[in-house]
Write a structure and sequence with these properties.
This protein is α/β, with parallel strands linked by helices and about 190 residues long. The chain has six helices and eight strands.
Length: about 190
């Protein structure tokens, strides 16, 4: 069994913001594979769905704790389903990657991302796969990084972001079937 986590913030206020790229990716996986409807779980502090990607049974979650506490939901689901860290894939926004690009990593530091920091703190490890979705400003942004990531995509950003969102099902399927290294070689 694998755990796939799309990171974001709950609530209508944050819908379609750059920081909710992980939620959008989770919704894309839900549409492209056979999953049960998402159910809100207070126990897991997440919206959760079970399904299959290829032959692999998958738990798909969208933490409802707000980004900086995402690790609470991830560790709760991992503990309950006894999913080891090497079977976890986190999908999230990344301001260091150009808009319209995605990058896959086997493991690594948080790189300033509060959701990843929380997961590292909750699990005690950097050792989980990530699919990082580029949301880097396409033009200079004057202001706080927090204001940028919590802002909605511009029309130009939507044009370059939509294709990478469409790649997420193929990326995740390849990670599950052939491993992170194969997916990195093909998509990075």
């Amino acid at each position: 069994m694998k755990l796939i986590v799309g990171l974001g913030n709950p609530g209508a206020k944050y819908k379609n913001t750059r920081h909710n790229a992980g939620f959008m990716a989770a919704d894309e996986l839900f549409k492209n594979f056979v999953f049960q409807p998402f159910k809100k779980s207070d126990k897991f502090k997440a919206e959760i769905s079970e399904g299959k990607i290829g032959e692999e049974k998958v738990i798909l979650i969208k933490p409802q704790t707000f980004m900086n506490l995402s690790g609470e939901a991830v560790s709760a689901v991992m503990g309950f389903y006894k999913i080891p860290l090497q079977d976890v894939i986190i999908i999230h926004d990344d301001v260091d990657i150009p808009s319209g690009k995605l990058r896959i990593r086997q493991e690594g530091s948080a790189g300033g991302h509060n959701g990843i920091k929380s997961i590292i703190a909750s699990t005690g490890s950097y050792g989980f796969a990530r699919v990082r979705l580029g949301v880097q400003p396409m033009s200079p942004f004057k202001g706080a990084l927090e204001d940028y990531v919590l802002g909605k995509f511009t029309d130009d950003e939507k044009k370059v972001f939509k294709p990478i969102l469409g790649e997420v099902p193929s990326v995740v399927e390849m990670i599950l079937e052939q491993g992170v290294g194969a997916a990195m070689n093909r998509f990075n």
